[in-house]
Amino acid sequence: xAINALKSKLNRFTVLGAIAASATVAGLSIPxxxxxxxxxxxxxxxxxxxxERIAEGFQKTGKGRVTVGISGTGGGFKKFCNGDxxxxxxxxxxxxxxxxxxxxxxxxxxELPVAYDALTVMVNPQNNWVDSMTVAELxxxxxxxxxxxxxxxxxxxxGFPNAPLxxxxxxxxxxxxxxxxxxxxGKAKSSRTDFTGSEDDNVLVQGIARDKNALGFFGxxxxxxxxxxxxxxxxxxxKTGQAVPPxxxxxxxxxxxxxxxxxxxxxxxxxxxxxxxxxxxEYYMKNAQAAVNAVKYVPLxxxxxxxxxxxxxxxxxxxxxxxxxxxxxxVADILSRTPK
Length: 340
Description:
The chain is of the alpha/beta class. Helices cover about 35% and strands about 20% of the residues. β14 and β15 form a beta hairpin. α3 packs parallel to α4 and α10 (about 275-295) packs antiparallel against α11 (about 300-315). The longest helix is centred in the last third of the chain and has 20 residues, at about 275-295.
């Protein structure tokens, strides 16, 4: 059965793996779950394509089975800190309030960067008036004060057409939403709310692709997978004044700012003692570079993956961020710090 069809039927909750018997779920015949312990992953839709690809490869080794859900970074941390999942996909670092909940529930974790993402601003391909935008223009559109007021393209920049501005973006449980608002507006979750929001990036792709006057944002991989249906917008680097497109090259050379960011998985330290979870995370770190390339994100260096693997094998518990977002941080810096 096609993975996308199954994801739709199961509310974007994917069951992966080769099994022997069959059962009926949501009216569909799918392989039944054996008694072997399942590795449960949930969280960011941005990190999802990487983890899904890793899970598919890992299951071919016969060392374990994996479920990968999409409830957004915030939604994923809610499940993770409640002890319901083994690994949490995250497109931002764990926040102070989430750290507190995890501590209260006795959940300790290992923070592992897995890739870079270029958070991408997009319009419809029929949009012939936007090539680049400044941080100030994006703030003008997305800040809370814009709600109900900035509703037309002509209000964004002189010369833009008199056309309704239709906005699409990740929902409030999304780490992408948190990072974008922090980088553009100056405060996480500080945003207008009169836009079409979803933790499912495919919903956003469809919305922008159908409306000539649309503008939205989400991770680079979903843009790369839908280039024929979307048009990316260059972002003017505040320090250089240069309009820079989102790409692997501009992320690596540091020019795509402030919307370049590292993305993560968080591993429950107790779960890491289970052989199948340990094998999965080690497989993840050893195969992440190829998987990240395949899904069109920006891989870390081989040395960074080796250091991340060592962090896991040494069971270095905690986060290096102290519960706060950092804009423009490099993975080499993250891995040079001691988690607390």
